[in-house]
Amino acid sequence: MKSITSKLPHIGTTIFTKMSKLAQEHNAINLSQGFPNFEADSKLLEMQNQAVKNHRNQYAPLSGLPKLNQAVLDKANSLYGSNYAEDEICMTAGATQAIFTSLAASIHPGDEVIMLKPAYDCYEPAVALFGGKPIPIEMKAPTYEVDWNEVQDKVSSKTKMIMINSPHNPTGKVFSEADMQALIQIVKNTNILILSDEVYEHMTFDGRPHLSVAKYPELQSRSFLTASFGKTFHVTGWKLGYVLAPKLLMKEFKKVHQYNVFCVNHPMQVAISEYIADKNTYLNLPDFYQKKRDQFLSLIQNSRFEFTPSEGTYFQMASYKNISNEKDTDFTLRLIKEFGLAAIPVSVFNKDEKCRKMIRFCFAKTDATLEKAAEIINRI
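Predicted structure:
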């Protein structure tokens, strides 16, 4: 066999894999890929170990363990005033699988999918795989506001879906009430679906609320809401998440899900179903990560980088325009090789990969790691 016609001919290895690999090769401090370098709560780990010992190691139900499903439904309905029912939830192998399967279940060849850039890099390839056409709209740097008039202008008879992400990766932007109301007006009296990536729902700062699509009946009724236990509970390697969607959409989601992964990790579902009973495990996260953000920004406040404090997520954007005229891909490569520090070049998420001299740091790290990273940043 000499060749195969690629369905994604222009797609290479994800930037996260590249930067983490380079960080390892050069023994650099890794503030690139979005994962904590501290351990999860020992209580959660022991619950998972106990589930294994209790022989909870065979297939879980397709939709997820009933106990965990009910806990998540109670959480969402309590936090957002929604009314999700037991047949409107499905556990997934991480939020990326939830996003992929949502698109697989709903996007047909020729459908247009509006997405806001910079965007997490799985969005466009997944849309393209199913014959959809990504319609990128650039958020307005440096504040990364959404021009909803431009979104409205891009809506056509072929628009099948609008993809949103708040709190937003990589910018740290958190949608406001005005943003949500603008979205409601755009989809009103249409059949447009929403795919809402809410993996950082419990990481908002300075008193900002997370405005989930679940909070708005006009949006809940047309939305796939994707979320991540891995992000929330510092166990990204568990690859465990979920999707919430109205019954009509969930029925189609499960048709694909059953032939994609069928079900997801059983003992980990058992552990989280027990762990999540304590609401503080997620309600305390905003304070926890705001302290991380504030510590990091305090440590680098005298550096030559420019930044506006992140509104949410565990990422901080920083401009290096006062330091170099290099492309961000070249600048971050030099950071690794010359300074021993890994960050993410934001252009890879932008429309047409436009470079705005912005890079992304992950501050979900131990105090010691942040202090060492700051020493390097302050030398640049």
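Summary: The two ends are 50 Å apart (CA to CA).
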